[in-house]
Each structure stands twice: as structure tokens, then as C-alpha cells.
Amino acid sequence: MKKKLFINYTFEENYNCLVHELDNSIVYCRNYINDEKDLKGLKDELDSLIKQENNDVEIIVLLHESNGIKTENLLNYNKSKQIKIYQFTEGNGFIYFKDSTENGLLDSGFISPYVFSDEKIIKKKFEIVWSYYWNYYEKEQLKKKIINLFLPLSIDMQGLKESNEGNLEEYTKAVIREIKKNKKKILLDWDEIKLPFKYDDLPVRLIAAITSTKFESDRFLKKYVYSDSNYLPTWLHNIVTDLEEQ
Fold it and tell me: How far, in Å, CA of 26 to CA of 22, rounded?
């Protein structure tokens, strides 16, 4: 299987459009911007890469935010198991060469000279970057999405569990108001997240229960706060752990 790393970035003029080959792998340096002509050019090039290799290829596309092209502009390609598309920001991302680890490929405006040997990118340097984006980065992004989505609700459930009897009623009302306000967005965002394993859909059940017109505080607290089997902080911890072990 051939590996092709496609970096869309504001390269210095003499680096733009360069192609670095190493064994079965290629690094493409490109500088497409978000206009109709360039977007078509990028899509045509990706189509050509797949076609010329007769589908025997894996492609990673890294889009720098300053060029304006986003993953949403290439949604059709995200459906393919052959292509993974990510965005990165200036100086932020595993793609950047770091002196401390000597990992990464990209410097400011060019491919770092420290990753070359005999005018070719060192295979090990390429493979470390490739492995990160093909195997690891996607899981990290998924973990962040899930944590950002459910950590506030998990904190609320923990707060209810630790509340004393005097403020429990008011705290419960405040949690209900907050969940009702954000219910639609939480459920939509959760529906878009695709986990690579089976899981208990606890957040959906919890939100349905706490926003129900038949809501009973004691029953809810017993089932979703004081019960270990339906406790959202534990569920969130287990989901993140399962992702790390995948």
C-alpha cells in the first residue's frame, strides 16, 4: 500500500509544488487557497492520486487554516477509508519539526532540512508522522469531542451526588434548566460522533429522563446519580479509556 502525505500550507515560493519521494511514500507540498479554481484543483489532484494507484493507496491531507480550505470543503473524501483529512494551525500540530524530539516534518514555510538525508526525507521521520495522523490523531480528536460534550454534564451529576439535602432541590432545578437549554445541541453533536465500538447510550437516556414531563426527582437521583451503573462520570471515564485502548 502506497502512502501519500498531502500538506496544504503557505510554503515559501521555491518549496510550493515540490514532491518528495521515499520508497513507497510521497510527500506533496501544495498551496491551494479557498477559491473556486484552487478548490477544484485540489479535488482533481486527489481524484488523480486515487485513480493512478488503482485504489492501492492511503492518503493523509493536512490543511493549514490560513489557506482557508476546511475539512467541510472535502466532505465527500472523508467517506473514503483511503483518505483522512485534518486541519492544523500555525506552529501547532505534530506535523511541525521539534528540536526536543526531532519528530515532525514542517518548519516555517518549508520542510525542515533536519529530516533529510542525501536529499531524501528520512523514512523513519516520515513514518512517525504518518503513524500519528493515520492511527492516533483521530482517536485524540474523538476523545476531545466526547469530553467537551459531556464533561459539564458529568460535573453536574457529580455535584448532585455531593450536594447536601439543603441545596439539592435548587441544584437539581438549575441542572434541569441548563440541560433543557442545551438539549438539542448536545443530542445533535452526540449523534454525529461515531465510536468504533458498542456502547451504552447513557447520555440520551439521562437527558430524556431529566427533561421528561413526568420527571420525579427522587426516582431520577436514585437511578442516575446514586447508582454506579448509570453514573455519567463513570461512563465518560470508561468511554475515554476504551478509546485509548483501541
Answer: 6
Query: What 3-state class would DSSP assign to 178?
Result: helix
Q: What are phi and psi of 199, to 5 degrees?
A: -155, 160
- pLDDT tens, 49-65? 888 777 788 999 999 99
Beta strands in the chain (DSSP E): 2-8, 19-22, 25-30, 57-64, 83-88, 116-117, 120-121
Contact between 34 and 125 under an 8 Å Cβ cutoff? The reply is no
Grouping H, G, I as helix, E, B as strand and the rest as coil, residue 33 is coil
User: CA nearest 111: which of 27, 45, 25?
Assistant: 27
Distance separating alpha carbons of residues 57 and 51, to the nearest angstrom = 9
Residue 58: φ, ψ to 5°:
-120, 135
Per-residue model confidence as pLDDT tens digits over 106-146: 887 788 888 888 778 888 889 999 988 888 877 888 888 99
pTM over 0.70: no
- Encode burial over 140-167: b for 16+ CB neighbours within 10 A, e otherwise: eebeeebeebbeebbebbebbeebeeee
